[in-house]
Amino acid sequence: MRIAFVSYETPFAPAGGVAAVMGKLPTAMSGLGAGDVTVVTPFHHKIKKTADLAPTLTVAAELDVRFQSRKIHVRVMRGTSGYLFLQADDADFFAGSPHPYRVTDSKLRRDALFFGVAAWQALERVDGKTPWVLMLQDWEAATTALAASRATRRPRMVLTLHNSYDTAVTDDQLADFDISPAACPGQTVLTRALRFMERKVPTVSGQFALDLLSDPLQSKVLADQLAAPLSGRLIGVNNGPFADLEMPPHVLASAVREDFAPLADWKSDNRSRALKALRGFAPSSERPFWGNRDQMLETASNSLPWFVMAGRDDPRQKGYDVAAEAVRSFLKAGGLACFFFFPMPGDEGLAGLSFLKSLAEECPSFVSVFPFRWEEGFSATLRGASFGLMPSFYEPFGMANEFYLNGTLGIGRATGGIAQQIVPLRGCASFSLAAEAIANRWHASSARPTGLLYSEALEAGEAIEGWKRINDAAYERGEHSTQRVESRRSLPLFQSMVTELFVALRDGCRVSRDPGLYGQMLVEGVRYIEKGFSWQRAAREYGRVARLSSPNWTGLPEVPCKPE
């Protein structure tokens, strides 16, 4: 039995969390005795990380995929670490850039169907004798099940949902690839494919498994079509951490003994490094800086709290606009803190982030924005910061673990994996009844706190209408536009999220002024992440779902799992 992860994105063509998981989970499963683990993925020829691999790849097989009235030749290219890249002769396929999904919706659907058919054929060509177990990542890889729908013998297939995205697909669009619509009835890729999957459908955190069926954004707006077919099937398999512990051992050991002076010195040293990098930074058109460097250097040299927010901008998920409005309210109310934003421009580009530029221009002494990957200063800024912000609209798993392992506490909206990675400080104003209702599912009231969780409370109809408006993202884009914020500012849902984050910022400032409390929370946060989340544990759970059993598989009990 062989395992193949089928994934549209990987570390060689990253876009988000799926690529990060593909950098960890296949290795973890192999390490637990699953044998050789293969990763099957497109050759995204316009993405540099993929294109640079070309000289190192060898041809493992060749095949043809039918598309409409023609056949498209595909080379199955073998790479290191068990990778199989599917390279289409037609350069119009797999042409997303700068990430794999940056094409029109119709092209992405077409390419995903092409990928599924090619992946199914490739696995048969590479090894048609040994039974495969396929670990399919999201709807783009679930197309493999559609390609296999008429096969007399199908492998076990496990679908992992890293988000709730799906796409409509018609009978004619399936027929373009010689896929029988009658063999896989439905309206979307996932509703057609779920019948072929193992009974249990994992997603990347326990809370997100609940959110998919109960959170109004997921169950009423993003994925209402999945409520029935996923009912009773979802399970949460928490990801492991995406970073290594960066705090020096002696700093952590001293903090465990409640000697927090080394921690303060270490964070101060990182602040000095960050400010030195900022002082020497020369902005350019490719690496713009928003704010006033000299004013920020002066302000940030004082003992004010630092708040950091980072990650790829997604106007329907990340909440950069919520953060901007909350920070504006905080500073207008006389709050004193420094805010460093590191947004990687998303599909809206730099123009979509103009509201952050406006905020930095209004508050140049307290807000700096780096809308690019600032390699020379980001790590030091993160490690010198007091808190990392996660005001996400939804978050399947989230990056709280990366904050803690870099020596920084988390402030997050209580959604998805954020709610599991942060143990809340309960005796503070931002810990509302709404946040408590979610936190109580995962954390005992007596658990030692590691950060701040907040959440808004709204009547269901008002929340659903707000989520629909936010998800529509129906606003003008432009170089000087602040339309994302302006179009959402009147929504009660948006206002409530802004208000709750504003309160959390004030609570964060209070915590940062208490070295003992801050240090204790950080120690507990590091311990909690290291003990509570691991890739080995995730691999064992995926093995159970896939019903793996062999003499070498240490991830399962000795008694083989029985088919459901």
Give a summary of the structure in a few sentences.
This protein is an alpha/beta fold and 564 residues long.
Radius of gyration: 24 Å
Q: Structural class of the secondary elements?
A: alpha/beta
Total beta-strand segments = 15
Count of helix runs: 24
- The fraction of residues assigned to DSSP E strands is 5-15%
User: Going across the major beta sheet, what is the strand order?
Assistant: 3-4-5-2-1-6-7
What's the domain count? 2
- Described by the principal axes of the CA atoms, the overall outline is globular
What oligomerization state is this entry in? single chain
Report the sheet with the most strands, covering strand number, pairing sense and barrel closure.
7 strands, mixed
CATH hierarchy class name of the largest domain: Alpha Beta
Distance between the termini: 19 Å
Reported by name, the CATH topology of the largest domain is Rossmann fold
Which CATH architecture of the largest domain would you pick?
3-Layer(aba) Sandwich
Helical proportion?
Answer: 40-55%
CATH superfamily of the largest domain: Glycogen Phosphorylase B
Mean pLDDT: 94
Low-confidence stretches: 556-564
